[in-house]
Each structure stands twice: as C-alpha cells, then as structure tokens.
Design a protein that fits this description.
By secondary structure, this protein is of the alpha/beta class. It contains 21 helices and 30 strands. The structure holds adenosine-5'-diphosphate and zinc ion (2 copies).
Length: 745
Amino acid sequence: MAEYARVIVDISLDKLDKTFEYHIPVYLQEQIAVGTQVNIPFGKRRLTGYVVELTDETEYDADKIKDLIGVVQKSLPIESQLIALAAWMRRNYGGTMNQALKTVIPVRERKKAVEHKTVRLALHPVEAQNQLGAYQRKHSTARARLLEALLAEGELEWNFITGKLGVSGSVIKALEEQGVVRIVRETEYRNPVGRLSAGTYECTLNGEQRRAADAVCADYDAGVRATYLLRGVTGSGKTEVYMEMIAHVCAAGRQAIVLIPEIALTYQTVLRFYRRFGDRVSILNSRMSAGERYDQFLRAKNGEVDIMIGPRSALFTPFPRLGLIIIDEEHEPSYKSEAVPRYHARETAIARAKMADASVVLGSATPSMESYYRAERGEYRLLELPTRVGGKVLPACEIIDLRRELREGNRSILSRRLTEEMEERLRRGEQTMLFLNRRGLAGFVSCRACGHVIKCPHCDVSLSQHGGGRMVCHYCGYEEPQPAVCPSCGSKYISGFKAGTQKIEQVVRERFPGAGVLRMDFDTTRNKEGYEQILSAFSNGEADILIGTQMIVKGHDFPNVTLMGILAADLSLHVGDYRASERTFALLAQAAGRAGRGDRPGLALIQTYDPEHYSIAAAKAQDYEAFYREELIYREMLCYPPVWNMLVILCTAKQEETAERAASELAGALAAYADLPGRERVSLIGPADAVVAKVNDIYRKVIYLKSADYDSLVEIKDRTECLIRDNGGYRDVTVQFDFNPVNGF
Ligand code: ADP
Ligand code: ZN
Ligand code: ZN
C-alpha cells in the first residue's frame, strides 16, 4: 500500500508534467489505483484529478502534504483506462510516467486551432510540367512560381505560399478553379473521401472467410474475449474478414480500432472501409498536426465515429466502449515505437483490450515469430485462410542463383532468365515489378563468386562494412580488417553490397529502351502525394515496369502485374540483426504475393547469392511452417525472442568515456544483481558499442540482457533506475531501455 499519490489536475499538453502529491488516508487506500479519478483540495478550491503514480516517498515535507478528499464515484472515464495503460507501458518498457502519459493521452492544444490549409498539385506531374511551360510563355510569373514549387514538393502550406513564396491567395484560388491545384482544408480530414454513405458495398464471404469471422463473432457473443491470429495467404481476403468482425462488434454498440502500417494506409484501403461503414469511420496519419489528431480523438470520445483506422498511435483512440482491435500486417517492424516508451503496439493492444474487455485480431500472411509461437502454445487462437479468394492461385516461384550467373559471364543485376521474362511481359502488354529489399545503413561484406558472407566469430551475425577498410560486429564490437580475397574460395570479387534503385533504373532503361519505367523509393516519395501518384500511374498502366524498395510490396492490388523480380534476396539477410531471416522471409513472401492478383497467373523470380538459405528456400516454396520451424531452432539455440526475452540498456553521452564509464558501472552492478541465487537466469553481455555507435556526436553504449522470464528483465530495469537515482542521476548520461528490440541495436 502506497502512502502518497501523484495527481494530475488537467489533461492538456502543458499540464501533464505537473503532478501534485497527496497523502492517501487509510480509509481510501483500498480504492486508489493508477487511473482513479479523485477529489483533491487545491488552494481554497476542491477539484478533481487523476492518480498517475503511487509512491512511498515524497519529495516534500510530509507534514505539509494534504490528504485526498475522496474518490469520484462514477463509472471509470476513458481517461482512467488510458492512464492505467500508460502505467502498464511505463512498467513494461521503461521511461518516465510523463513520457508514457504523453504517448497515450490525446492532449488539448493551448491555442485555438486556426484553419489549417495546404495546397497540393492536382495534375499528373507531366501535365503540370506542360502547364508550367504555358504559364512561363505567358509570363504569369506568380502562377509559374507556385507551380514550380509544387512540382518540387508536391504539397505546400498555404501560409508558406502566401508568405515566403509571395503568391497571393487569389492566385491560388484561380489555379484551383483551373483544376491545377487542390486546396486541402483541415476539415477534409474529418471525412477524407467526402459524403459516402454506408451500404454501397457488398461482398459475400467465402467458406473459409465465413469460418474465421464466425469464430470471433461467436466467441464475442458468448462473452469470450481473446487474442486471435488470422494467418491468411496474400490475397486470401483478410480485410473482408476484419470488416465482418467489426460490423458485428459495432452492431453490439462497441467500437473498433484498426491498425495498418502507415505505408499500407493508402487511399485504396481507406476507401474500402468507407464504402462499408460510411462516415462512422475516421482515419489518423502521421502528417496530421497535434490539433487535427486531437480533433479525431475527440470525435471518437464523443461517439461520432465507431471505427478508427491508423498507424501505431491510433491504438490510443479514446473509445469509451472499445470492443475490438485489429492489427493488420502484425509482423511489421513499424509497430514497435522507436521513441521512449519503446512500446510494441501488439503487446500494448492486448494490454488495452484486457482493460477494456475487448478482443484483438492479429492478421498476416507471414506472422511474426512471436505471434505464431504464442498461437502454437494456445495463448492466441489461430484462424487460417489457406487459399486466395476467387480460386486464384499463388504465383509460381523460382530461385535464380546469381553465383552461377557470374560464373557464366553475366555481371548484370538482371539475370538472363529475368531479362527474358521481362521481354515476354513487354510483348504481352503485362506489367513487371522489380523489388530491391535494401534496408539498414551498413552493408554486409560478401563474395560474389561463392556467396560467402563474413560473419562475427562470436555472434552469428554478419560483420558490417565501416570506414577505413574495417568490418565490425554490431552485437559485440568485434572487429577485423576487410580481406582482399574471399577467405572461403579465394576470389577477389569480395565487397560490400551496394546497388541502389537508381542504379537499377539506369540498367533497366538501357536494357529496355522502349519500356515505361517508374521508380519508387525514399527519394521519389518524399511526400505522400508522390507515393500515391506513382502507385496510381502504375495502376493506370502508364508504365510497364515499377522498380522499388519495401514500399512497392505493401497492400496494393495491381491485377496486370504478372511478374515480380526480386533482385537480391540476400540483401535483407545480412543486416547484423537476429531478426534478419524473419524479415527476409516476410518480404520475399509478400513480394511474391504481389504477382498474379488478376486473372492471369503470376511468376516470382527470386535472385540470390544464397539459394540454400532456409528463409529463401521456404519463401520459394511459400511454406511458412517450414520457415518457422528452422527459425525457431535458431532462436532457441541462441536464446533470442520469442523463446527468451531481451532487454537492451542504451547509455548515451557527449563524451565517449562518460558513456563507457556509466555502461561499465551499470553492467558490473547488474551482473552481480542478476547472479543472486533464486533468480531466474539472466545473462548479460557487454557493454559494447551500439549498432550506430555515434549519432550527432553523441556516443552510444549498450548492455544486452537475456532471460526466459520477462518480469526478471523488468526487475533489472527497475534496479537500473534505482542505481541511476543512487548515483545522483548519472549526470550527462541518458539511459534508455528497449525490450525485445525490433529494429536492431
Ligand atoms: P488480403 O488482405 O488477404 O491480401 P484482401 O482483403 O485485400 O486480401 O482481398 C483481396 C481481393 O479479393 C480484394 O480485391 C477483395 O475485394 C477481394 N475479395 C476478398 N474477399 C472476397 C469475396 N468473398 N468475394 C469476392 N471478392 C473478395
Ligand atoms: Zn560479435
Ligand atoms: Zn568466395
């Protein structure tokens, strides 16, 4: 029983930091928990507030602290639930209570939101270019200036145009009348597709879909709340199943949250939900201002919408009667937050669902190791959609050995087989996608003759190329010089692999001079419009070949694509991260699944230097189980998640020695603590340099801890926080925690 409660009086951005301490009188102790709404004396007034923390220590003079007056006896408001969720996040992921609160509580902005307007290009870039020529010839300089800027940026703030750019509002309006630009007002976010009414959408589920949806609905009616894993191959109609479940839950007067990775949150996807549910749907995206997001949250709280669709943060939509949380593409790494608290949306969704008496449905063609592991152990209920809808078949899949291409004299990134198939597609008027799964900053070092990849002798991860001809292990800091010849076969074709999409575009244009080529990567999609533009141009058949990174494999239906070329499947395999195989398998399976979504069968060609690798072989066979079994053996052997849990403690400081000293001291103290008899085994490695050892002149040191038991790691985190406090806060050092990291360290 804690003696004191920290209370916030007002939930708004600038007030969250400000907590007040009160003494908890004995007769109230039973009723007080984090999230409880309480009455407090405040100066001469009596106010209500929320308990955000319980503590036995007070920073103030104990005699001067006032007592809580009482508990507000109404049904728990949604704020209480979210505060309790924040406390859960703080406990399980570290950080301060304020950081956790700021993540979950929709905050009011101080100043009244002014209408926010942006101006977007409404024409295809080619047409816009022509229009620009016309303005220039007519010496319409203001119009030309605006159009030129929009061609470069895709979208500009109204205030920027009328200010810095010196173009008047009447000129913008004239261009809007001409259909050259579109003015987007804040209110458009409220219903981004206009006034579509529900019920314009009909779809009869097939038998498999029906069974999956019914399983959840029947449980729901029986009062059973659970976490389900819906494993359905690409094109099996998972979205229709989600919508059926949502309709059921909403009909029972509850609300639903649908998480979709931002990159897959396209107009196409959102439209499907609007067609079915009309304006009971709202969306969130990361480009909204805090005010716009607050607006959406307010609508949810007031019962104006029942369904919120958005990326990770939509999880905190303050629905008062939440009934269902759907997480589509649940294996996506973007569900893990990279800011403190480093929460995982999947686990946090399950925690919230418990508090709200809701169910969770996780969906994927290639579930995360975590989810499938839990499904196997009965913690999640497994639902399956093994076939594509409409009797469509999965694409045929072939592996092309790039080592052999090289031996036989082809040094191009396009194998002979891929080139022939692309020619064939051009002849038949069908489309091709070329996928380059490049990820991460550091390149691995491999031999182009035999496929050998240089690995750390201690860690079973590939070494990464660094400056000065060095190779470094990102897990333990081991380092060696880069060899001149392959240690395995003696070939001199050993190097860091670096071929970007731009280079590939050049090769493709040279090889197929008559073909229309589009490229989609980080550079061509700086803004979201660029992304949608390229997608719609390709889907309208304006190009024959689309080259791209991860972005092109997520959630788009291009019925005319019958060939998917995966250029170097190994690229994502050697990124110095124990999740590399899992990510590679998921990417390959997903990429292959892009082909043959229309009436004609598809073909996927997987080019690789490492054809025997189990993640590549399993992707070719489109055999998730086979991959999962192999991968689990590896995870078990090396004590990685999901079998064990991992905690990374990150110490950062301006001076390398400062970070080093703090990390060493902590590691020493924690090693002794972890070894105490009677404790679950915790193994400790480090300190070592982080993957990115220095960012903006801040040095980063890490300690790795592994344990079968998550709570033991939580204890280690709590212990670390005590050590830091005892040490006067480790001046000049920032310490962060990352549980079961997803994006490498
Ligand atoms: P997934 O998310 O599993 O890849 P989608 O839900 O996107 O699959 O469905 C793939 C395509 O099949 C979509 O165009 C969808 O409209 C269509 N579809 C899904 N279920 C049915 C059905 N029962 N009858 C007809 N078309 C369907
Ligand atoms: Zn190592
Ligand atoms: Zn070699």
